[in-house]
Amino acid sequence: MPDTAPAPFLFHQGTAPLLISMPHAGTHVPPAIAARLTPEARQVPDTDWHLPRLYDFAQALGASILVATHSRYVVDLNRPPDGTSLYPGQSVTGLCPVDTFDDRPLYANPADLPDEAEVAARRAAYWAPYHAQLRAELERLRAAHGVAVLWDAHSIRSVLPRFFVGRLPDLNLGTGDGISCDPALAQTLLGEARAATAYTAVLNGRFKGGHITRHYGQPAQNIHAVQLEMTQCSYMQEALPFDYLPEVAAGVQPHLRRMLEAALAFAAAQSL
Fold first, then answer.
1. What pTM did the predictor assign?
2. Architecture of domain 9-270
3. 13-33: per-residue pLDDT in tens?
4. Among 15, 193, 203, 238, which one has the highest count of C-beta atoms within 10 angstroms of its own C-beta?
């Protein structure tokens, strides 16, 4: 039988100095891994659901778009390759997670957890190609425009006691506490987010940007990276069947568009 597994990522090359990365949008789990998961885990509930649809306007802005195809349960593309925690002292999931956001086991049998060799194989098969494409596109954009903006797009359930107390703000911008992009860009984006009065917004709150934002954001080298972690209730159903809600999404999409337009305006000013 032919191999029906998807490539590690889907990629659209745009014309503007903006790359949108969606490292947690994938849902595919290879059968050999899925067979070891619990019934709950096979539903991949911790996916950043429907982000390509939510950002479906971005191609018209000229953005390049990089979308993971495999679930974060296979390998987490937003973790360092050695799995080092980005939030020391706080509960986190690893490079090859073994539990859900609700702190329940992913693997039905504890003996089936991935060992070091399997982690290395997954890193080579899925993590490395995604990051090679991400790096190459940022370099291409910077060469073409003199500057590149990386927008790392995420979403998460609004209430997750394992990770934060109470309800998460709707629009969580992260710049690694100011290291991954020009402070002027961060403040402009925060202003746009706060102007969305139906939503709550914060800069460098609980989510400050993961490995992608912190590693690739190098403002001194004209690469500016920002993470946006959104509450899923802003555009979709947060419980099974995790449906996209077009009427709800229509409320937040104009604000996302204005933030991306602000990022492009910043890039245009830098390249003058």
1. 0.96
2. 3-Layer(aba) Sandwich (3.40)
3. 999 999 999 999 999 999 999
4. 193
